[in-house]
Amino acid sequence: MNARAPGRPRILSRARIVASARHIADNEGLEALTVRRVAQELGTGQASLYRHIADRNELLTLLADDVAVHLPPPKDGPDPRERVIGQWLNAYDYLSQHLWAARIIAEGEHAADSAAAFTRSAVDALAALARVGSGEGGPDQAGIARTYRVLWHLLLGHLLNAHPVGHAHPVHDIAVEREGAGPAKAAETFRDDFAWALPRVLEGLLGTHAS
């Protein structure tokens, strides 16, 4: 029989370590994430974790990779503009649930190989949108790549300004005061701002129609 005997500890794996680290980061913040804290969460010693990861830096890289795997593809549909906007709004919503991930991406120290799938799908969607108004010459590849980078800066800027996750910004407090409500309302305002800015950035860089 393969059943685990009562009281026998579960087998430790990288997947369990990453899941525990993600839980800690989501609920306690990135500063609380240490190898010791993950070991406590898993009910084991630090030495056991070091059989699977080298140090905290590798743990952060694994977390970044885990987040990148779940970045959303473009939305289905015939309208290339709606597909692009939908993908980036979904990315905003996803990362807003894991704000520490936005910080890791912005700091750029922990590259995630799994982000390549999101990059390819986003660039392809932007190319399809650019072809709509590019004429016979086709889309400007350099312009598409630049647009992709600008959208990332726009996304991360809104997330990190809207939520004090290590890059506290006075704009956050101003938004709370302006809306006359708590941080949840301010976060909603920043999300609305991102949704407003996104089509206008696309219009400016690719010549698409904003609304």
Features:
about 65% helix, mainly alpha, 10 helices, about 0% strand, elongated, Tetracycline Repressor, domain 2, Arc Repressor Mutant, subunit A, about 210 residues
CATH architecture of the largest domain: Orthogonal Bundle
Q: Could you tell me the radius of gyration in angstroms?
A: 20 Å
- What is the domain tally? 2
Topology order in helix (H) and strand (E) letters: HHHHHHHHHH
Counted beta strands: 0
Domain HTH tetR-type: 11-71
Keywords: DNA-binding, Transcription, Transcription regulation
Protein name: HTH tetR-type domain-containing protein
GO molecular function, one term: transcription cis-regulatory region binding
Summarize the structure.
This protein is mostly helical.
SSE diagram, text form:
Layout: H1 14-28, H2 35-42, H3 46-49, H4 56-69, H5 80-96, H6 99-107, H7 115-132, H8 141-162, H9 170-179, H10 183-206
Helix pairs in contact: 1-2, 1-4, 4-7, 5-7, 5-8, 5-10, 6-8, 7-8, 8-10, 9-10
GO molecular function: DNA-binding transcription factor activity; transcription cis-regulatory region binding
DNA-binding region: 34-53
Protein name: HTH tetR-type domain-containing protein
